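Course assignment 3, question 2. Fill in each field.
Student: A.L.
Task: Predict the tertiary structure for the chain below.
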Amino acid sequence: MIRRPLRPIARVLKARENGVNPNVIEAEEKAARMHSQRNAERFRAQSRLVLLAIAFVLSFGAVGWKMTVLATSSPVEPVASGRSIQIVNQRANIVDRNGEILATNLATTSLYARPQDMIDGRAAADGLAAIFPDLNAEKLFKLFTGARKFAWIKRQLSPEQAQAVKDIGEPGLKFGPREIRLYPNGTLAAHILGGTTFGREGVASAEVVGTAGVELEFDTFLRDAAEDGAPLELSIDISVQAAMRRVLAGGMAMMNAKGASAVLMEVDTGQVISMVSLPDFDPNQRPAPPVSGDPSESPLFNRVAQGRYELGSVFKIFTAALAMESGIATPDTMVDTQGPLRWGKFRIKDFRNYGPRLSLRDVVVKSSNIGSANLAIEFGAEAQQDFLRSLGFFEPLSLELKEAQHSKPLVPKNWSELSAMTISYGHGLATTSMHLAAAYAAMTNGGLLVTPTLLKGGDLPDENDRVISRETSDAMRDMLRQVVVRGTASLGDVEGYQIGGKTGTADKPDPKGGYYEGKVLATFASVFPTDDPKYVLIVSLDEPEEMSSGEPRRTAGWTAVPVAAEIIRRIAPLMGMRPEYFDDKVTPNALTLTRN
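Answer field:
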């Protein structure tokens, strides 16, 4: 800034010329300089006051806005910042084919303790023991008076239990939010759903992770936030599942069986409509897996998809199909059934004497072991292996259950001619009911192998999946129908529906060698209706004994067959299947197998 001169030379010279005193000029310049300085100082002071006023207004405005926000918003707990990984506890629902909920989430509360915050540890311990009988008051008191600063008490509480704990009034007992898995249908579809448990846990949340069944198989999908909560849609019909379990449980009790299983599958798509294994469990309170003994004795064991059994004469339909596909027989070809059939020191005999010869059709209808064995000798062990391999009996199931994917059928290491003979009527090869269901579907749907699935909307097979010709499939349907009409499954006829099927009664192997005396697995493999097959149903009873005659009857025709017939009678209307005709006459073979 250039300061104003007090004695401007131009003015001084002019003043001297005019006789004016130059000091007057200097006084005027001083006065002008002081006036200019006062104006500048006044401007600075005013500017500072304006800036201070603006700052004051903004500050009080911000404080007022924050107070308004706090006054109009809901209170929330403060969240501490940190580098810990967020625990995601959202899990999608599981629904059946009609959208009915099979598994969902439920908000609940967890309980933990901070002993350092406790006022009266003794009262807290006694109060908790009174609310939760499984807790020990003395152990809790030691925990509350020890050196630990944190301890879980209960991972999940009911609302009533949470309120009871609050009524204790102990500030050292803390609550945290939890999300648990709820199975509203209880034991229904237990082996399909499996169950969940807690993964990573924090006081504010916990992971819910699958431990078995579809909960484990689709754990990633169910926890994927990118799926936006889309439910997992299963092929199961929960109404059919409920009816089938009810009848099967009644049949298991009536036939004095130690276990039972049933699976219902669409023959064209492989979609599993229902799958029941008894005894079962409640996935809301899933029991711990056994650490010793026979795993099949546990209710967690899935007899349909895990249980590998010799299934007996239900395999004779495969023997008949291979005989036709090999060109060595037609349904009317006569087969040697003269017995007993000897192979070395072994003898093969039939349940009763059927005479020297039966047609291929009647070998199946009357269930001749000798006829099946003679056919196996004719087409050979290698052809039998190739055919059973094409039906999936050499590989584990691809079903969407982790536990099922390890159930590879047990086949002979040395597939001799004797092996071929015994396997022709279902002994010497152990497989699951689900394998059998898929193979029976191929036998009756026109000859196309299907892949069992628990997901809604199974894929239709094509010509690349063909295992037998359509003509052979038509013949198999006729044979299965004849088994029910005039063969070993006469108790399986359900009026109004054309039921076809094959019985199988297999002696149970003794782990020490040989077979048990009087212990069998009775199986009925059925399809319906045989004129246009829609479903295949496999029913098995473990060690059944039907005692209505006073003597134990263990064969499938007396045990598994009537149970399967009652299942079809109950579930067919639920699936929209109308009988071919209506008749007020009660079928003499109808049994009441409902059990509460």
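Instructor remarks: The CA atoms of residues 241 and 274 lie 5 Å apart. The radius of gyration is 42 Å.
Grade: pending
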